[in-house]
Design brief:
CATH class of the largest domain: Alpha Beta
CATH architecture of the largest domain: 2-Layer Sandwich
Number of domains: 2
Largest sheet: 6 strands, mixed
Order of helices and strands: HEHEHHEEEEEHEHEE
Helix content: 40-55%
Strand order of the largest sheet: 7-6-3-10-8-9
CATH topology of the largest domain: Hypothetical Protein Tm841, Chain: A,domain 3
Number of helices: 6
Structural class: alpha+beta
Oligomer: single chain
Strand content: 15-25%
């Protein structure tokens, strides 16, 4: 579990405590947060709150869920729609190995670029751009209408525009959204819906 997950849950609990009424939907956006969201929801329900948990394990799933949120919908319908959108968002991430270890794609060394799809490392390489493109290709193989690219702190300025141009070459009908997430540790987060 990453430390950021713990911080996010603490912030969620504090924010929920400051709000005394109303329905609450939790978007954990991480495996660690997903595990802890149940305890937060249980405590809030004990205090009379209606709480739904959308099982998001990646930030792009949270974005997909928020994109379909309809404030005028009844609570249950909103939770179902948001859950379906999150579930249909395939996700990937690019990181750099901080130590040597065994991954699903084989052994990696400190400094190797890792490309993950749905949480599993599927590509190991030396170039962020090359690994990122391989992850984009894997995500788009199953189709999709929207590719979301979220730039991290360590991403090269040309990375996202270059990936977007290559992806448009695969499909002119593909919508591409580029966001500056500013996340540390992940030069790129990706999503396909």
């Amino acid at each position: 579990m990453r430390q950021a997950d713990d911080v996010a849950i603490d912030k969620l609990q504090a924010a929920a405590d400051r709000t005394s009424s109303g329905d609450l939907v939790i978007l954990p956006n991480g495996m660690g947060n997903l595990r802890k969201a149940d305890s937060v929801a249980t405590e809030l329900r004990r205090n009379g709150r209606r709480v739904g948990i959308i099982p998001t394990v990646a930030q792009v799933q949270g974005l997909a869920a928020m994109a379909v949120h309809e404030p005028s919908a009844d609570f249950e319908s909103a939770v179902v729609a948001m859950s379906n959108a999150a579930d249909n968002a395939r996700h990937g991430e690019i990181s750099v190995a901080d130590k040597s270890r065994m991954t699903e794609a084989g052994p990696c060394q400190q400094g190797d670029v890792l490309g993950a799809v749905q949480g599993d490392v599927v590509v190991i390489g030396a170039s962020v751009a090359d690994v990122a493109w391989q992850v984009v290709e894997r995500l788009l193989t199953a189709g999709g209408e929207l590719l979301t690219l979220i730039r991290g702190l360590d991403a090269d300025d040309n990375l996202l525009p270059d990936l977007a141009a290559r992806a448009r070459g695969m499909s002119q009908a593909l919508d591409i959204e580029i966001l500056d997430g500013g996340q540390p540790g992940y030069p790129l987060l990706l999503g396909v819906e």
